[in-house]
Amino acid sequence: MSVILDINNLSVEFDSGQGVVRAVDSVNYQIQEGESVGLAGESGSGKTVSAMMMLGLLPANSAKVVSGEILYTNAEGKTIDLIKISEKERRKIRGKEIGMIFQEPASSLNPVLTCGEQIAETLRTHLGLSDSAAKARTLELLQEVKLNDASRIASSFPHELSGGQKQRVMIAMAISCNPRMLIADEPTTALDVTVQKSILLLLEQLRRKYAMSLLFITHDLAVLAGLADRILIMRQGKVVEDNSIREVFLHPKNPYTQGLLSCRPTIDERPERLPTVEEFLKSAHTEKHGDFDKPSLFISEESRRIAHEKLFSQEPLLKIKDVHVTFQSSSGLFSNSKQEIKAVDGVSFDIFPGETLGLVGESGCGKTTLGRAILRLIEAKSGEVIFRSKNLFNLQASDLRKERKQLQMVFQDPYSSLNPRMRIGDAIMEPMLVHGLQPDVFARRKKALELLNKVGLTRDHFNRFPNEFSGGQRQRICIARALASEPGFIVFDESVSSLDVSAQAVILNLINELKSELGFTCLFISHDLSVVKYMSDRIVVMNQGKVEELAEADTLYKNPKSTYTQSLIASIPLGRPQDIDRAIELRKI
């Protein structure tokens, strides 16, 4: 195989307004023709920046190449430095010879153009196809990415499609000109496990069919198990490991790689706490050989059984009874007729004091709607939620407000759930003020500082604004704010899905530690089955608004009774070191 991309000594800096930040620092790597390479690391490691620089997608006024070259060899064998070419020359390569799939298809697709028109525009621009030829090829591409109702998808606007459908449209657009190389930047992060599996399989099939090189960027090494030939690990702008997928999984040399592999929950082990990347790195500095012993403290089946006997002998804290939530959907832009959509369809279960109840299912199954309905953030059509002998659905506004301090929610996106103009100290104190929980501003401030300390932040953070924090830090702030009213019940709605695996491990440990200390009860909603299994005492599986299955977490994974649950578990990536040989073999089929 010949080299299609050769990155030599690349360094990229940004002027942040508060100083110069080196995002990529002396990076070197190559990609061969037809090779599939995984590029992994935490948020801020520089992996996306190095890829965006190839296509000239970084802002010229703030991003500066300090050193290096990005050498691309085209089909004619001519080598081009992608940094030095003009924007006009780069446009000829971008989309035609090097395609890119972005992380968030909703923001990457034009909301005012149909999906078909956006693909056809690419075909007309790069291949010079006529309108009729571009339309015909668009339908072929949509079928190729396994969108069977191609005509409907082509005439639909992005907001009319699901997340998985939008991502397939993006893939169709990226491969429309038969590129020699495809860059996929976190294309499955926001997708549930079944859709993620189908997208990964599709990318592998298309790579083989068109003999494309693939650069797959991710923070989760598990998704690379059945996709990559080789893995590059980046940290703080540098490549710290570059090896075959088998060597990286079975014999990782860098402590950072060891941490990334170990900090994600697995479906067959239940440590008392998850190891973190920081612990692996600290161990590398303090231990003689940098070896890190994995936690030897695991929760035994017997101790878990005894704890559950005690847990489930109590009177339930919440009783969810036959809850129905419906939405009215217009059948067309100019139509007055309405269609009733059953988002939650007769759901019933109990939640016991001190329990963490997991709620899983594919996107659109109704799990987030149910979580919000329980707290009356949206109104249910019918049913009951009994909380400490009171039916929340029957409470008047004044009485519901009194109960609110006991019922809190931590949302999926911490940035959008924090007021960007409010200092985080004020955000944490606000629930205390609303519910009259502290006598004065001094007591509220003291309590807020205590909560910051509990979630691993300091008093120095009190007067900062949300934009000054990382995603993991913002989620800690949201947890502190939820705890400010001393609630008895907290709904965690996809609260770690937007975080990389290292920040995720820290937040999961934090939730468990705070739960043990403060004694609150959780409803933990997620599409990540490994995370839910680790966190939960029992798990509710939802499908199309109904409860598909409810069982103790370990029992559910060992012996799923529903075909739907079985398919969800089968879709979990084979991301454990002991599974890597099987993943490699399955990829050959």
Question: Strands, helices and their partners?
Answer:
Blueprint: E1 3-15, E2 20-32, E3 36-40, H1 47-54, E4 63-73, E5 79-81, H2 87-93, E6 98-101, H3 105-108, H4 115-127, H5 131-144, H6 150-154, H7 163-175, E7 181-185, H8 193-210, E8 213-218, E9 230-235, E10 238-244, H9 245-250, H10 255-262, H11 277-286, H12 301-311, E11 318-330, E12 338-351, E13 356-360, H13 367-374, E14 382-387, E15 390-391, H14 397-404, E16 407-410, H15 424-435, H16 441-454, H17 471-483, E17 489-493, H18 501-518, E18 521-525, H19 529-535, E19 538-543, E20 546-552, H20 553-558, H21 563-570, H22 580-588
Parallel strand pairs: 3-8, 3-9, 6-7, 7-8, 13-18, 13-19, 16-17, 17-18
Antiparallel strand pairs: 1-2, 1-4, 4-5, 9-10, 11-12, 11-14, 14-15, 19-20
